[in-house]
């Protein structure tokens, strides 16, 4: 049982690392286009909070036999911070302000949990408090892509729900779910069981709409394009009117000059 527990922990580390690295494709696109487009930054900041709380819960002075939980989530927190900073750089001014506010709230939440658990609580009460906090925000993290899933259903397009991200959500959730069951740790098993289910749902949506990566999502763009087109037509009309006036002035001048030319 202990060997299986350890092996699923190692597998969980591997799949979680791939999960953390999967968005690099998305962020390469964001950096190249210098825009966050329709991508949501909420999953990344919530994942960072989950990593911080889970890494804290896995520390030996908080819970036992969960060091594998702490190592991978500490690594994940650093990776997610890079994503979050990149998102802040390329987001619109309005979204940037909201996102910085959310990031501040996330860091304050983690600081509060760490302070209470280390200063006010000891032993089992510290483990339970930290475990509840980690479990709650793990569920929130796994649930954060629901907005993207709603977009997929609405637009019938998977353009903004990367396949590998969905795949590793499923694999990571499954491996840590089993790890939690084998270790009789509900704070690990329950939230990752939710992640396993939501990951499976994302994969189902992907395979339903996988052949429609443009689809209705592109209908968001023509609204702006139409406005630009109308503005361009108005500009062309003004230019045409100006040309007509200029031509009329020239004709009028020619008429006035012509009698003198005949003399």
From TrEMBL:
Family: Belongs to the SWEET sugar transporter family.
Topology within the bilayer: Multi-pass membrane protein
Organism: Salix viminalis (Common osier)
Pfam families named in the record: MtN3_slv (PF03083)
Keyword Plastid part of the UniProt annotation: no
Lineage: Eukaryota, Viridiplantae, Streptophyta, Embryophyta, Tracheophyta
Superkingdom of origin: Eukaryota
Bilayer-crossing regions: 6-26, 38-59, 71-92, 99-122, 128-148, 160-182, 188-209
GO BP field: protein homooligomerization
Protein name (record): Bidirectional sugar transporter SWEET
Annotated keywords: Cell membrane, Membrane, Repeat, Sugar transport, Transmembrane, Transmembrane helix, Transport
Record-linked PANTHER family: BIDIRECTIONAL SUGAR TRANSPORTER SWEET1, RAG1-ACTIVATING PROTEIN 1
Coiled-coil positions: none
Its biological purpose: Mediates both low-affinity uptake and efflux of sugar across the membrane.
Cellular localisation: Cell membrane
Cellular compartments per GO CC: plasma membrane
Gene Ontology molecular-function annotations: sugar transmembrane transporter activity
């Amino acid at each position: 049982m202990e060997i299986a527990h350890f092996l699923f922990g190692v597998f969980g580390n591997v799949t979680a690392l791939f999960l953390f690295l999967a968005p690099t494709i998305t962020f390469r696109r964001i950096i190249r286009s210098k825009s966050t487009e329709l991508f949501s930054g909420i999953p990344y900041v919530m994942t960072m909070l989950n990593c911080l709380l889970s890494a804290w819960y896995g520390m030996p002075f908080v819970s036992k036999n969960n060091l594998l939980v702490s190592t991978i989530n500490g690594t994940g927190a650093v990776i997610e911070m890079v994503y979050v900073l990149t998102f802040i750089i390329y987001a619109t001014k309005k979204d940037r302000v909201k996102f910085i506010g959310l990031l501040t709230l996330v860091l304050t939440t983690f600081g509060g949990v760490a302070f209470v658990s280390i200063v006010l609580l000891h032993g089992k009460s510290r483990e339970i408090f930290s475990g509840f906090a980690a479990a709650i925000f793990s569920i929130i993290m796994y649930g954060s892509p629901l907005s993207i899933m709603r977009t997929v259903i609405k637009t019938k397009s998977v353009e903004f729900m990367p396949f590998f991200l969905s795949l590793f959500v499923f694999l990571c959730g499954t491996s840590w779910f089993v790890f939690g069951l084998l270790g009789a740790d509900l704070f690990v098993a329950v939230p990752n069981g939710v992640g396993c289910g939501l990951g499976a749902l994302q994969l189902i949506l992907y395979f339903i709409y996988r052949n429609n990566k443009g689809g209705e999502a592109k209908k968001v763009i023509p609204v702006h394009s139409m406005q630009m087109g109308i503005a361009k037509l108005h500009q062309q009309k003004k230019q045409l009117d100006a040309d007509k006036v200029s031509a009329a002035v020239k004709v009028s001048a020619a008429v006035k000059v012509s009698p003198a030319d005949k003399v």
